[in-house]
Write a structure and sequence with these properties.
Distance between the termini: 41 Å
CATH architecture: 4-Layer Sandwich
Number of domains: 1
CATH superfamily: Metallo-dependent phosphatases
Radius of gyration: 21 Å
Strand content: 15-25%
Strand order of the largest sheet: 3-2-1-10-11-12
Helix content: 25-40%
Largest sheet: 6 strands, mixed
């Protein structure tokens, strides 16, 4: 009897070991890279922001992405700091990527002279300021959190006036996010987002939403202006698996209503680099951080 028990125990251990080995060797459906807040500028360091160092950091990230043979790279906004010519400097580096680069637009990307604001999207090779793409039945939705903002629109435009009215109202209410560097989605973009989410749910597509601005934590000075409305919208669709953003320059994670919210560290911060490779599996995401970025497994 004792010998039978030992055989059973050994069989169970071997089965468990084989299962564990199978899990650890599972291949992802695909992998993609993330950079956030490169924010390059040809200027001296200011506090924790080492502007010129971003060139070497971005070059390192490009080399790693090419070596790892990922499918595409996403920039979560603030590619530059404030000089339109910086786009050319950075593009000379990212042109070495062997895979597509998809941009989310950030507030600093529009922090250029008035006559250059209308050229930003074309410079980033974007046909639209918000858009979606599909990879292996996963849908990626790219939002423009500067749609209604002071920084992305020229003074006197309809969008600028709408942004000023909204900002004034938020200030009157004492909202922490009532800052001129923040913004939000237009009504047209919100309607488009709802259609994209509904279509993805109908097709049983898992969704990752990307935006420069975060939706959490509560009381943050960095969130979208109409944060509650956007939260409620994306959290009402169970096929939305993650919301990824930059803007805050630190690594943060929140799990709310079965949805993973991840903020990625800014590449511009100090001397050590920060970028990411995300592996997409059927039932989870694995975040591999480089430099000061954090590793995470999102079930």
């Amino acid at each position: 009897m004792f010998r039978i028990y030992n055989y059973l125990l050994l069989w169970c251990l071997l089965f468990a070991g084989n299962k564990l080995f199978a899990q650890t060797t599972e291949k992802p459906l695909f992998r993609f890279g993330i950079i956030a807040d490169v924010q390059y500028a040809d200027r001296e360091n200011h506090n924790t922001r080492h502007y010129r160092a971003s060139l070497e950091k971005l070059s390192e990230a490009v080399a790693v992405f090419n070596k790892e043979k990922i499918k595409f790279v996403i920039s979560l906004g603030d590619f530059i700091n404030d000089n339109y010519n910086s786009f050319d400097t950075l593009t000379a580096i990212t042109n070495k990527l062997k895979m597509p680069l998809h941009h989310v637009v950030g507030n600093h990307d529009f922090d250029v002279s008035e006559n250059k604001k209308s050229q930003v999207l074309q410079t980033l090779k974007l046909k639209n300021d918000y858009y979606s793409l599909k990879k292996k039945n996963w849908k990626f939705i790219f939002l423009n959190g500067n749609d209604i903002s002071l920084i992305a629109n020229t003074a006197g435009s309809v969008e600028y006036k709408e942004a000023q009215e909204m900002l004034d109202q938020l200030k009157a209410e004492g909202a922490p996010s009532a800052k001129p560097w923040n913004g939000t989605l237009s009504r047209n973009q919100i309607n488009w987002l709802q259609q994209e989410l509904a279509n993805a749910q109908k097709k049983k597509q898992p969704v990752i939403v990307l935006c420069h601005f975060p939706l959490y934590p509560d009381g943050s000075a960095q969130t979208l202006w109409n944060v509650a409305e956007i939260r409620n919208l994306i959290e009402s669709y169970p096929n939305v698996k993650a919301y990824l953003n930059g803007h805050v320059h630190v690594s943060q994670y929140f799990h709310k209503n079965n949805l993973h919210y991840v903020t990625f560290k800014g590449m511009v911060e100090k001397d050590e680099n920060a970028f990411t490779i995300v592996s997409v599996f059927k039932d989870h995401l694995e975040i591999k951080g480089y430099g000061k970025e954090v590793d995470r497994i999102l079930k």
